[in-house]
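Hi R.,

Here's the chain you asked about this morning:
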Amino acid sequence: MVTSPFKIDGVPEGPGGIPDLAENVATPMAELGNTGLRRWGGYVDDEFLPALRGRKSIAVYREMSLNDPIIGSLLWAIDKLLRNVTWRVDPASSSYEDQQAAWFVEQCMDDMSHTWDDMVSEILSMLVYGWSWHEVVYKRRIGQVRSSSLRSKYTDGLIGWRKVPIRAQETLLRWEFDDEGGIQAMVQLAPPDYKQTTIPIRKSLLFRTALHKGSPEGLSILRNAYRPWFFKKRIEEIEAIGVERDLAGMPIAKVPVELFNAPPGSRDYQTLQAFKKMVRSIRRDEQEGIVMPLSYTQTTTGQGQPEYDFSLLASGGGRTFDTNAIIERYEQRILMTVLADFILVGHEGQGSYALHTDKTGIFRSSLNSFATAIANVFNRHEIPRLFALNGWKLQQLPQIMPSDVDAPDLTELGTFMAEMTQAGAQFFPDPDLENFLRKAAKLPPKSPETAYYQEQVNQQSQAMQMAQQQMQMQSMGQDPNSEEDPGSDGSGDDQNQEQF
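And here is the predicted structure, written out as tokens:
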């Protein structure tokens, strides 16, 4: 009896001996469970806070990023630091074909209708909303054509990137999932025509700050900052109202008691409503002022008390709470959620340089992880697509790699190289290392003429050293081409002579 090479223990065989991977069969190739993401009809409903569910979260995060100066400064710093990153393409090997493939990817990065840095800046909107969807648009590289959107610097006829534009988060209508919870498409409803458009994942890139339960919406870096931002916003509004009213007290208007019993629509009722509106609208500004009717009650003895009166009920003392300290506390908590509270160092009149350095180091490491995450999406999804469209079959593909957010500390680097040199390490001549050091120190690169001249000098120096070594060996009576130990007298021991 011939056993099928595809047989799996405990799984019934189908036609041709192929295992029948029916649903709910516990085999290595069957998926039984799911991620547990709460979703229905293409809408993700996994947030316990009602204010941050669905499209409401997009409006809240947009307000946080555009209206709050602390969050705005944080996002501005992240954008500018990541724009300073250098993106290179590493070939899979040193072979000519792999070098050409890496060069092709570099050309595509520099041949889009927008710059690579502008695209990265759009991708960073995932920090605010948790995700960023980008549609990849291709073009045939046929040189300078009439259409500006299809122009290319190259005329090789290959397919390259035309642009990688964002599909704004606020234009999301719903998601499309497969039976296993995988993301298949984004359904968009965008101005100006507001037509429903389905953008499949196979021609898109989805960037997320974090992955939880396979949710396409990721997790915003502002999610943990929502609570302190909410209270900070409310306290600032209350503080502004107090300043506008000059913190003088509560306004009080006195009117005749008959007005409270007036029927709706009567003149007395309208007078009462006017006084209520006046009390609510009292504030100190360029239009401050009150017009009061001059009227007195009539008594048997003549003129009585004023019928209408206005005054301010003064508070019993100073303010109990320091709103400035409370607001600063919430600002610090907002920055702490993203390891960026070093921004406040110096503003609070305290903090050491060493502490600032340690905190910025952690923050830079987190930014490096974001840059690596962006590169990973391209390397895992888009680079294979690009080469498949061009029919370019390679065993391994080139990789887009980001540099660190900031250059290395030159003092620490110099100390390290000096200690390694004392230990016997030899760094120079090394053209690649020299180019790295020049770039790190922001020095001009070495010109080709200087590099060629220095290479010739190094070759001549090495030739002279080898000639000197040969002359020394000849003066000691030793053949320069012999592999014999220079410390030996050439006679050998008795045992070797007997063998010969």
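One quick note: The two ends are 67 Å apart (CA to CA).

Cheers,
M.
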